[in-house]
Design brief:
Helix content: 40-55%
Largest sheet: 6 strands, mixed
Structural class: alpha/beta
Low-confidence stretches: none
Order of helices and strands: HHEEHHHHEEEHEHEHHHHHHHEHHH
CATH topology of the largest domain: Nucleotidyltransferase, domain 5
Number of strands: 8
Distance between the termini: 78 Å
Length: 415
């Protein structure tokens, strides 16, 4: 539907007195209105005040629709019909923002911007603001991508090393603000690359929660786990023993050091820590475990409780020594996943108190997806491919047992 001469002249007069921003909004409003009218004419079968044989219904006034765009808010009149209903395909039903602004708001949420600041962002972009419920509705659309990532299969290759840890955030549950854990699992695959295997939100203090989380990883295909690295959380370790049978457990040396130093005075802390570090500076498995006994004996007269802790934790604290020496520094603590936890915490701290666990999971998972994709796109491996080969020795040659197999082997050898 084209504008008539008088309408064009009126529009021209408005443009003469408008600034650049207002000019763009009016141009956009005019264009949108013309597109809506053209679609309505096609659906109804006739233009306004037009009589045709193909008319399917009649116009019955209009209603205003506020559309927020990158150049500001514009109002479009949506024709009503006497029978049936009409809504232009250009504007999705109940949608106040265009695709570009939608992406900005979702990205702002993923970046950890609070809903109040998102509202300010929308206003700064030329909109009239947006409610918290609208931001939540928009961001809920991220759930499809999050669900697909959290349920992706993990059976394409083994993950010999798995790191487990949790960070805590405030969430409103049953009208109470409680602390909920975001538990994260990362792994090093057989080719030496890191992946974020999964995440979940819940009460990490219970063995049942950790068991459910690890079983989900197993059901998705996690296999080939040789070493689990985590702190000494009782629920976590019990779940790992149940679900990841056959794998060793490395107690994080950083967490252990914190627990151990709590047993000594502040003045003696540095001396004790220096002695403990000599355990991890040894070159072979035997010297690592031998040095632990030496250090325990040196500390026993003055710090008997520390000596007991060292000896009790010997197996779990030195599990790393049974793996290739080039890997030791990368597998004897949870430092790699701690850095990931800090990034999740940095983003979630902006929100403060989450309205529910779904919102917490949504934001946390998006941050982890971002890190996961960066690891996959990077050319740098967490552990070199050559060193990873030490974990998977070449299988022994199977000698042929039948005459046919012997003949085939000879033919292959002389080919």
């Amino acid at each position: 539907m084209a504008l008539d001469q008088s309408a064009l002249l009126e529009l021209l007069e408005m443009f003469k007195s408008a600034d650049a921003g207002e000019l763009m909004r009016r141009l956009l409003a005019t264009m949108l209105q013309e597109l809506v009218e053209a679609e309505a004419t096609a659906v109804i079968g006739a233009g306004p005040h037009e009589r045709t044989q193909t008319r399917r219904t009649q116009r019955n006034g209009s209603r205003d629709k506020l559309v927020t765009t990158g150049v500001g808010d514009v109002t479009v009149k949506i024709p009503r019909t006497r029978t049936g209903s009409f809504f232009p395909a250009l504007l999705a039903p109940r949608r106040r923002i265009d695709v570009a602004l939608h992406a900005v708001i979702c990205q702002a949420f993923v970046e950890g911007v609070s809903t109040r600041r998102v509202d300010d962002l929308v206003i700064a972009m030329g909109g009239s603001g947006i409610s918290k419920s609208e931001v939540s509705r928009i961001c809920a659309q991220l759930d499809t991508d999050v669900a697909a990532w959290r349920t992706r299969p993990l059976d394409d290759q083994p993950f010999p090393y798995v790191f487990l840890d949790a960070t805590y955030c405030k969430t409103r549950i049953n009208k109470r603000v409680v602390s909920q854990a975001v538990v994260i699992a990362t792994g090093v695959s057989a080719d030496g690359r890191r992946e974020v295997l999964g995440c979940a939100v819940g009460d990490s203090e219970t063995e049942a929660f950790w068991t459910e989380f690890l079983r989900d990883l197993r059901e998705r295909g996690l296999h080939g786990v040789q070493l689990v690295i985590s702190d000494a959380h009782s629920g976590l370790t019990a779940a790992a023993d149940t679900v990841l049978q056959g794998s060793a457990w490395q107690r994080c040396r950083v967490h252990f050091m914190r627990n151990l130093l709590a047993k000594v005075s502040k003045g003696d802390g540095e001396m004790v820590a220096a002695l403990i570090r000599t355990i991890f500076a040894q070159p072979t498995p035997d010297t690592v475990r031998g040095q632990l006994e030496v250090v325990a004996g040196m500390l026993e007269p003055k710090f008997p409780a520390v000596a007991v802790m060292l000896r009790d934790a010997k197996t779990d604290l030195t599990a790393f020594a049974d793996f290739p020496q080039p890997h030791w520094r990368r597998i004897w603590s949870t430092n790699p996943i701690e850095r990931l936890n800090k990034e999740v915490k940095r983003r979630t701290d902006v929100v403060g108190i989450f309205p529910n666990t779904d919102a917490l999971l949504r934001l946390s998972a998006c941050v982890l997806i971002e890190a996961h994709d960066e690891w996959q796109d990077s050319d740098r491996r967490y552990l070199s491919e050559a060193s990873m080969a030490l974990l998977f020795p070449t299988p022994p040659l199977v000698l042929p047992t039948t005459t046919t197999e012997v003949t085939t082997a000879r033919e292959l050898a002389t080919a």
